[in-house]
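Dear colleagues,

As part of the handover before I leave the project, I'm documenting each prediction I ran so the next person doesn't have to rerun anything. This entry is a single chain, and its sequence is reproduced below.
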Amino acid sequence: MLTRDVLADPVALTRALVDIESVSGNEAEIADRVEEALSGTALKVERFGHTIVARTELNRDQRVVLAGHLDTVPLHDNFPSRTEGNLMWGCGTSDMKSGTAIALHLAVTEAEPRHDVTYVFYECEEVDSARNGLRILADRRPDLLTDASFAVLLEPTHGLIEGGCQGTQRVMVRTSGKRAHSARSWLGENAIHKAAPVLERLRRYRDRTVTIDGCEFHEGLNAVRISGGVAGNVIPDECVVEVNFRFAPDRDEAAAEAHVREVFDGFDLEFVDSAPGALPGLDAPAAQELLGAIGRPPRAKLGWTDVARFAVLGIPGLNFGPGDPNLAHKQDEHVEIDKIAEGAEVMRRWLRG
């Protein structure tokens, strides 16, 4: 049980959430605790699997969403939490239980926000997109989201506003050859050798940068995996180079695919994964108010986050959380305690106006 004293302190609440093991697919206990905490408020609470939605019904002129995922990557000798000075260590401290704790803390303690608020605490963000609780909610009950005019995803940003996010695509670049015994290699065609031009094009590729709403997005096209060959004495007849394209949100998925096809013209391509980016959306009035509360300029989110799901629904959104994104998924993941307190205060000021 999350006690009243713990819910009133975002630092203590972060520690309590971190100490509930919730690797993706194992969110039942943490979802139970969150639902239990919210059930004692005036919020309208609904549960979908291990995703919890809690909404104010105050008839405000505007509704905003605060969202955070409940799951973590697998543990790596970093559970439970421990505290040393200003640092709290443990799986999920940065990504993103400190941000989720801020949202839950505000849901329980901020009874009269100036905007109506939809709080979403969702499962399975760290695994396959088909299991993502926010995606499932958007597909099955979009009405719980689409009445909002703005969204904040409390992903780790180290206390800064990170606008939008990059899109991402994965493509398999295949080369074909002809098998032969490696002792008589001239009777075959080596598919791995034929992949050399693919790697050369990637080596010579020049990444594009683009500035949108003051946020500089840096694209990247990189080989992330290569496979080929069947045995140590066989000339390989196929080689596959897996390439990941991280693209700025001024490109849609079709434009990104067209660019990749242009780069690898003449090769056999198979696109196996694609997700759109999201524009920063910093011109939304609520975004400007939050920027004012933070008092520091925004930067681009260099990565993909669920703000893209809000963008698909026509809801501008941004990323803001106390954790350092560079520590996400690392064994030595930690969060600065004062960043949790500062983040909670910023969000409270914003909600109160």
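Residues 189 and 236 are 8 Å apart (CA to CA). The first strand starts at residue 44 and ends at 48.

All the best with the project,
I.
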